[in-house]
Each structure stands twice: as C-alpha cells, then as structure tokens.
Amino acid sequence: GWFWHASQNDNVKTPAQLLDIYYASVGRGACLNLNIPPDRRGRIHENDLKSLREFRRILDATFAKDLARGAKVSASNVRGGDATFGPEKARDGDRATYWCTDDAVTAAELVLELDRPTTFNVVDVREHLPLGQRVEAFAVETWHDGAWKELAKGTSIGNRRLVRTAPVTTAKVRFRVLRASACPAMAEVGLHAEP
Fold first, then answer.
1. Which residue among 22, 37, 43, 169 sits deepest, i.e. has the most Cβ atoms within 10 Å of its Cβ?
2. What is the pLDDT of residue 44?
3. For residues 189 and 112, what is the distance between their CA atoms, to the nearest angstrom?
4. How many whole angstroms separate alpha carbon 18 and alpha carbon 24?
5. Which residues contact 88 (CB under 8 A, 6 or more apart)?
C-alpha cells in the first residue's frame, strides 16, 4: 500500500523481488521508486530495512567490479578511423567518451576479448545520450566451441540497459547493434556477476 499499515509488515518484498523491480526499471533506463513509507514512529520498519539492506548488498557486490574492464576491444567500424571514437572508449569507464561508427553505418559490432574465461550474468550497456537514443535493436553473443552463440537480444538501450541472463562463462563477448536510427554511439559496454 501507499501508506504504512501494521498488517503489511510481514508482506515486505524480498531482496529477490526488489532486484526484479530494479532490473525492470533502472535496467531499462527508468527511475526506481520503491515507495517505502515510515511507520507510526516515523521510521522505516525493521522488516523493510532487512530486505533493503540485503538488496543494497547484492547491488553493491554485483556492480563493484566490471569484469570487462581491461578487455581487448575491437570494432567492425570506427568513425573516420579516429581513435577519439575508438572501441576502447566503450570500456574506459567515462560516460563522456564513446565508440561511434561512420554516419552511414547503423549496424556494427564490438568484440570484447577477456584475458581468461570469465563468468557473468549481467550485461550493462549505455548509449551516449547527448547525441540521443539511437539503438533500435541489439544482440549479445558469447564465443563457444569456435562459434558465436546468441546470449540475449533487445530493443532500446538509452541511458542504461541491464540484461540479466543465466550465468555464462566465456573469454569473448560480442555486442552487436543490429539496427539504429543513426550511427550508434556507445558510452559503455560492461559485464557483471550477481553474487
């Protein structure tokens, strides 16, 4: 309910439910509004606090380390061949820099070569929003037994798209822009693992 009710103290959302809400909102470029009302003491109830703290612990552990940081990165196209827009810009942790393609290229790919097989279950992608939301369809693939296998696909990205998958272990990941309204401008492509 919108307000606190003693009868609802045992109906608190679990950390797993809160994570689902997080990925369905923040993970799709929206805001997170949990609506946690104070009780009659003016405090958040202990059951809510317990769930929220575990939720925060899982988020902190998941996003504490980008498993793709330091990966060797290559791209099918780089805008004007200019290093200013090179593929490593999607891996530098700076949302102000970005990998971008030539104007006529609206489908492209970025390959991350990790230094060893790595297990992850969250793909984190962001567009460079000062240039607008451009990606209309994308896919994420992993390298297994000498071939690319599709892990996930989606439509818009915008500010942030978090794609949760079953845990997968690989040393190569390919992010593909399948369709965009203009040349894609990707600020970040990252990999994470939920604990």
1. 22
2. 86
3. 9
4. 10
5. 73, 99
Residue type present at position 82: D
Phi, psi of 185 (to 5 degrees): -130, 100
Burial (Cβ within 10 Å: 0-12, 13-18, ≥19) of residue 77: buried
Single-letter code of the amino acid located at 92:
D
Residue 71, number of CB atoms within 10 A of its CB? 22
The model's pLDDT over 34-43, given as tens digits with 9 standing for 90+, comes to 888 888 888 8
Alpha carbon separation from 45 to 16, 59, 103 (Å, rounded)? 19, 21, 54
Residue 2 dihedral angles phi and psi, to the nearest 5°: -70, -35
> Which of 126, 121, 93, 128 is closest to 26 using CA atoms?
126
What are the structure tokens assigned to 26, written together? 């923040």
Q: Which two tokens stand for residue 175?
A: 């992010």
The model carries a pTM of: 0.90
